[in-house]
Amino acid sequence: MLTSIQSPSKISLEEFLLLPETEPASEYFDGQIYQKDIPQGKHSTLQFEFPSVINRIGKPQKLAYAFPELRCSFGGRSIVPDIAVFEWPRIPLNSQGEIENRFEIPPDWIIEILSPDQSSTRVINKILFCLKDKTKLGWLIDAEERLVIVFKPQQEPEIKENQDILPVLDVLSDLQLSANDLFGLLNFS
């Protein structure tokens, strides 16, 4: 659940970005600041394990890279997706070829993991906002229900579960996994 942090008046994105970072992260949209919930077990595990799966394929071939909890500020908002995936040529780099600290573009793929008490409406709003600003793919992972709601620009959302193959970015076509494979990352036995 995102908690709204009350402020006496709406602030601008620029003012928000000057504030100190919070733990857990805060996000900014529509002049309001919202603090994310602290991840619990399943959320935390998927947020750590799944980027590793993506990066094992994406990084060596310079196709894409998955970042957990990366602040992305664009379109008048500042969001912190659970996982933000960028295709390699779009990763902001400095003149030495090192990664920049500030990402002022939307991710190519936004992945949100629903926490038990989190509002799915606000999370879906975040995914739809990204899709309107050139994000190619969005996932809402519900670990309790063991399903993934897939969002693509100008298409109806799809529910994927069990043996359904999950769509990924075109550059990551070697990454073939089902919903069961994704939720298998939670198995510690």
Write up what this structure looks like.
By secondary structure, the chain is an alpha+beta fold. It has a single domain (38-184), classed as Alpha-Beta Complex (tt1808, chain A). The chain is built from four helices and eleven strands. The strands form three sheets. The chain has a six-stranded mixed beta sheet with strand order 4-7-8-9-10-11, with helices on both faces. Strands 1-3-2 form a three-stranded antiparallel beta sheet, with no helix packed on it. Strands 5-6 form a two-stranded antiparallel ribbon. Strand 2 and strand 3 form a beta hairpin. The chain is globular, with a radius of gyration of 16 Å. The model has no long low-confidence stretch (mean pLDDT 93).
Q: What's the SSE blueprint?
A:
Elements: E1 3-5, H1 13-18, E2 26-29, E3 32-35, H2 41-58, E4 64-68, E5 72-74, E6 77-79, E7 83-87, E8 109-113, H3 120-132, E9 137-142, E10 147-151, E11 158-161, H4 179-184
Parallel strand pairs: 8-9
Antiparallel strand pairs: 1-3, 2-3, 4-7, 5-6, 7-8, 9-10, 10-11
